[in-house]
Amino acid sequence: MSSEPPPPPLQPPTHQTSVGLLDTPRTRDRSPSPLRGNVVPSPLPTRRTRTFSATVRASQGPVYKGVCKCFCRSKGHGFITPADGGPDIFLHISDVEGEYVPVEGDEVTYKMCSIPPKNEKLQAVELVITHLAPGTKHETWSGHVISN
């Protein structure tokens, strides 16, 4: 029996050159991705991303009436309940006309545009608040709060 201490356990290499990974410089061809540079494309259709033909079709369409179901200024979108019934309609902040931020219960008029890529759902465009909901506080886009 020997009184020698056991050998130390093997440690993994801590530097890439000691393993041989950086012996030859490699360049990697990358495809242009919208996610590079922290630029994430928005899935929400806005006035800026809508095609000209879709904008023209929407502006020539009929005017509908409805009630604002909900709208979140920080998220930039909400929904409208049509006056004639049917499913709720999406609303983006870029399509709100006028000086007030819509709140729940506001009566509105709007036109409709389909949402790409499948064009199965509808979006409200050219939204105008016709009657402010009574008993609620309304905020202007500049931040002034007005009690109604």
From TrEMBL:
Pfam families: CSD (PF00313)
Keyword check for Lyase: no
Region feature Disordered, mapped onto this chain: 1-47
Protein's recorded name: CSD domain-containing protein
UniProt keyword annotations, A-Z: Phosphoprotein, RNA-binding
Molecular-function annotations in GO: RNA binding
Pro residues bias: start-end ranges: 1-12
Organism: Mus musculus
Keyword Phosphoprotein: yes
Xref: SMART domains: CSP
Domain CSD: start-end pairs: 63-129
Top-level taxonomic group: Eukaryota
